[in-house]
Design goal:
There is one protein chain. The protein is an all-alpha fold and 423 residues long. It has 2 domains: 188 residues, Growth Hormone, Chain: A; 209 residues, Growth Hormone, Chain: A (Up-down Bundle). 83% of the residues lie in helices and 0% in strands. It is built from 18 helices and no strands.
């Protein structure tokens, strides 16, 4: 009955009244779905070529490094250029990358004449270069497509469909590879990316306050960084998210925990999906009940809840209890994601959105890959279970520090901010 009430309430679909937002969201969903399926197939091919677990980590780092190096410049570009055109350029680049992967598969993988994974690393590097420009531009463009009163609702839907695409893509990638083969799978990926490109092209051009071309690039980037570091709400939300992912996240260690729980590959797949299922359920709830009242306290509570879940996950010996803990961690994490996104949307001037979101891209969007490396290193030094407990403890300490040293974040009321902005 509760879910029926949620889906019958028009307020939950407030953002969908804006046609360009629908086009944007559909494009992003298709692109995320395609890239998730593609990533699964790439990892499988790299494993088959190298038979080296480290090569899978290199796949992720090949994408993450250019993002971290170029994100600030990508944000600067998003504040100077047409954000819609940046998305068109990136999606076109993804079409070319998907076509290249299809060509490599037909020419070299199927005949088994390829003995190195460097073409895959190179393609992932180009995907990372494009992402450094795409991430700041897409966040900034989304904000242009809706009024301020719908920021929280749009963030919830943006998060919901992204998580759904990740869940479907992660599962479908393996199934499609097994039942359809790599060539057919890459063809489907290519079609999805082309459809995503069509949706971006269909978005109407929206005027916005652009950065003056007379301002030097480095001075402009410093201005964006100064803005982030001078705003307790934005800096605190980003810092908490970064620390939680870097130290509190343990998803990359799931294959080893699956062995500890004696559940095999099938159980590993279920464990991998559990956090995303929790995220989707919570995101759907937030479309009707956006976390704007007492947002600062909710952010601190949810990051603390996520950290505690990681500690409980480490010590759990029951498969079903572990599933519940992981789903709960995904729910907590998604609340913090939506609050952080809404904070950045509300507090950032339009002409600075690209540079501010680029900081988030550089430190948070790539922290999953860097966090996976940190988790593996900590597990080697401390042991698997102690390393996860230690990471959860570090994240909890960060929450305590933020509640003491960032009072503006702790007292933040996003509903008050919205009301003020409308007057």
């Amino acid at each position: 009955m509760r879910l029926k009430f949620l889906f019958s309430d028009k307020e939950a679909y407030g953002s969908f009244r804006f046609i360009n937002f629908r086009k944007f969201l559909f494009s992003k969903f298709l692109l995320t779905l395609a890239l998730q399926v593609q990533f699964v197939v790439i990892c499988w091919h790299v494993k088959e070529i190298t038979h080296d677990p480290l090569s899978i980590g290199i796949v992720g780092l090949s994408e993450a490094l250019p993002v971290m190096l170029l994100a600030l410049y990508g944000g600067y570009t998003a504040d100077r250029k047409d954000r819609r055109k940046i998305l068109i350029a990136y999606t076109t680049m993804m079409v070319l990358c998907s076509a290249a992967l299809l060509y490599i598969t037909i020419q070299y993988v199927i005949p088994k004449t390829i003995s190195t994974a460097w073409p895959y690393y190179l393609i992932m590097f180009f995907i990372g270069v494009g992402r450094a420009f795409y991430s700041p531009a897409q966040f900034s463009l989304m904000t242009q497509l809706i009024p301020r009163t719908h920021y929280a609702n749009s963030s919830a839907w943006n998060s919901t469909l992204w998580h759904i695409a990740v869940v479907i893509g992660s599962a479908a990638g393996g199934l499609m590879l097994g039942f359809l083969g790599s060539v057919t799978t890459y063809i489907i990926v290519l079609v999805l990316v082309i459809l995503s490109l069509i949706q971006v092209i269909r978005i109407d051009t929206h005027p916005y306050e652009r950065l003056s071309s007379k301002e030097p690039m480095m001075e402009s980037i410093r201005t964006g960084l100064k803005f982030v570091f001078s705003n307790q709400a934005i800096l605190g939300a980003m810092s908490l998210d970064l620390i939680a992912v870097l130290f509190g996240g343990a998803i990359s260690m799931l294959p080893f925990f699956a062995d500890n729980l004696h559940v095999g590959a099938e159980g590993f797949g279920v464990l991998r999906a559990a956090p995303f299922v929790g995220s989707v359920i919570m995101a759907l709830y937030m479309t009707k009940h956006p976390p704007v009242r007492n947002a600062g306290r909710k952010l601190l509570v949810c990051v603390a809840g996520f950290s505690i879940c990681m500690i409980l996950f480490a010590i759990s010996r029951n498969f079903y209890l572990t599933l519940f803990i992981l789903a709960l961690s995904g729910a907590f994490d998604n609340v913090s994601v939506v609050i952080r996104s809404t904070i950045v949307q509300l507090f950032t001037p339009d002409k600075m959105r690209g540079r501010v979101s680029s900081v988030s891209t550089m430190f948070i969007s790539s922290s999953n890959e860097i966090g996976a490396f940190e988790s593996g290193l900590a597990a080697r030094l401390l042991g698997l279970i102690p390393s996860v407990i230690f990471g959860g403890g570090v994240a909890l300490l960060a929450v305590g520090g933020a509640s003491v040293w960032l009072p503006e974040l702790r007292k933040l009321q996003l509903n008050a901010k919205e009301e003020k902005s409308e007057k």
